[in-house]
């Protein structure tokens, strides 16, 4: 299967058809101008094949996933439909079937006979995966149900179907470089329990073809560089285990990592021998010739057998017989059929979008807006500058257009279905203006944060709408939105009375941006930012339609049912009675950890787990043997009154008594206790104070633990990576010269000054600054530090022009400091003959600061210098955002110590109280 550049039949693709008899072609946005031109192009390709003596027509394939990923757009004849996740949000599998059938009918009218869908990936890690709304959600059964509805609709529309991206792109780990292949780290057992369910069910229901990804697989018993080149994946897992006898199509072998590591010629031979029936090569004629030469060489050298080729031929001919014939291929209905379909499909598009818009929360009843602000008041719309989805063919078109220096607008800029964010959001502003007969203020925002222009407009407007697009992967959007929310919450009337300004957040791509953040009181999801989606959004904002969409996946299904198991007697931890036994339990868990992994409990003791802090309500639980007084399991809970956050800070069981439901019994008791806390807003796995487990540990038992907590009702799909770090050998440490210069330059030009404070003389201002973050445990960490003048301090960053506090970080010195007691890594390193060990904790940067990275590096750099001056030989950085870029911290000499997945849930929507 090959692609090519051009909107007409080029000499290169003609040669491939006539001389090499390629049987399949993939068309992308770069080939397609309109429905009429597409019909003519497909006809010319088929005619070329027919005249060249091909016994059967070409397979002509197209990506047409809807939402932001459409290869073919025609404003007159091709309708826009919601993304896969948007359709799932409608809650209607019948609607999914209708939309899929309509999509197939439209592109089928142009001569297409294979659609590259449905996308059957399960977002087992929804927060960080680039698939976003191209996937249907994080619940494997729901993805399966809607995937089958899509598949049946495509078939009813006359197309062959393709499942992708086997074995799953739903939880890839990305290493950074284009030459690094994304990795699946789940074992085959884990994949079988979740990610493979939609693929397995689609196979049973007659899926025609399957795309196998080019990702790596690395887990116990698996070490695969590229899945589509692996016999273990294709002939083993897909053919033998899942009994798939349809057409297997490889990922494009032109991907840089694959071609660089193996070479296209050798990769082609490997793909065929692995069991692929079609090898995909997207565009480069020279690379395509290399692949053909590799195939011929493999056959001549008997590396590829004739029987292997014949097996693939049989499968391909079977698929073609279902979806095409020469009579059909040489007589595409084209515009005549599309004209007749247009009225009903236009109505279907509107119905689908109107049904998908989801109002997740509207706590203050701001909707409809006509009841919130008057016609003479101004509405402010703040929108991000975004590009098309990275996975879309349209994104490639804009890159190619820019590279060629084309004066013409790129395809995505001309197309209402995949317009640039700037243009489509401008249309949204105009639609809002027309709807309300009042003035709409509209401006964009970037990673530079809230600027004076934004502040002036926010103060002027009577209500504010902020749009976000994949804020979990564009972190500046989260900071900007939080800052605007803070300004709206601090609004005052002319009489000096505090009055919250109406504030609405609309996620126009991934719904996970603020799904679990109850501080965003009115939150709406559209699942894509096409013009049609935003037209429906305006109708929802002004009450013309009643929004019926629901968040797909586990996030809206309430918490999962707990598995049945033995119920153990859970008792409240008694420090006087149980402390010694808890120390023994901790030692047993540490001893059980494999030597090549560092146990999070190393250096911990019973004292580490009890805070005795006035702003924290503690309740810890044990399963114990009342005769021997031994502890079989322990669970700690903390309720931080300042943020309304209930935390499970540690949960561990005697290694000799695991899988007996001890952990389940402890967890259920902990949740029941946290649910009873007055003012509880959110629950969290992992605690900053004490800093032992920052979340679900991602060491040697990562997959098992993640699955266990998911089954207990936690939304692990929305986990956030965090880690602790360490810098060793500070006696030889000097600050990196280039970094020192860069930080000095950045902070100097921004007008920052730094100082180090001890005690409460200046503590109140520090706490006011810290509370703007609203993160669990931050204020408590700072209170402990400010109480401990001898062992801890706070480094502050202030803006020179007005003295405003814009950044802080806690620094503490040695095991004698109060904070070190709650950071076992400090004690563990100190006992390991590293010499005295200091610590850095809880940096807080104001969301209004545009120079976030530079200021963070400056604070940590100054903290390391201070710790070194105190004679410490190592330094623990006990809590860092794992989404960040660690190049700066690595340059300072920091290495990752432990990694975790911080997982949160909304306490108000935790729907099931565990049994007593």
UniProtKB/TrEMBL annotation:
<comment type="similarity">
    <text>Belongs to the glycosyl hydrolase 3 family.</text>
</comment>
<feature type="domain" description="N-acetyltransferase">
    <location>
        <begin position="619"/>
        <end position="685"/>
    </location>
</feature>
<feature type="domain" description="Glycoside hydrolase family 3 N-terminal">
    <location>
        <begin position="12"/>
        <end position="318"/>
    </location>
</feature>
<dbReference type="InterPro" id="IPR050226">
    <property type="entry name" value="NagZ_Beta-hexosaminidase"/>
</dbReference>
<dbReference type="InterPro" id="IPR016181">
    <property type="entry name" value="Acyl_CoA_acyltransferase"/>
</dbReference>
<dbReference type="Pfam" id="PF00583">
    <property type="entry name" value="Acetyltransf_1"/>
</dbReference>
<keyword id="KW-0378">Hydrolase</keyword>
<keyword id="KW-0326">Glycosidase</keyword>
<dbReference type="Pfam" id="PF00933">
    <property type="entry name" value="Glyco_hydro_3"/>
</dbReference>
<dbReference type="InterPro" id="IPR036881">
    <property type="entry name" value="Glyco_hydro_3_C_sf"/>
</dbReference>
<keyword id="KW-0325">Glycoprotein</keyword>
<dbReference type="GO" id="GO:0016747">
    <property type="term" value="F:acyltransferase activity, transferring groups other than amino-acyl groups"/>
</dbReference>
<dbReference type="InterPro" id="IPR001764">
    <property type="entry name" value="Glyco_hydro_3_N"/>
</dbReference>
<dbReference type="GO" id="GO:0005975">
    <property type="term" value="P:carbohydrate metabolic process"/>
</dbReference>
<dbReference type="InterPro" id="IPR017853">
    <property type="entry name" value="GH"/>
</dbReference>
<dbReference type="InterPro" id="IPR000182">
    <property type="entry name" value="GNAT_dom"/>
</dbReference>
<protein>
    <submittedName>
        <fullName>Glycoside hydrolase</fullName>
    </submittedName>
</protein>
<dbReference type="GO" id="GO:0009254">
    <property type="term" value="P:peptidoglycan turnover"/>
</dbReference>
<dbReference type="InterPro" id="IPR036962">
    <property type="entry name" value="Glyco_hydro_3_N_sf"/>
</dbReference>
<dbReference type="GO" id="GO:0004553">
    <property type="term" value="F:hydrolase activity, hydrolyzing O-glycosyl compounds"/>
</dbReference>
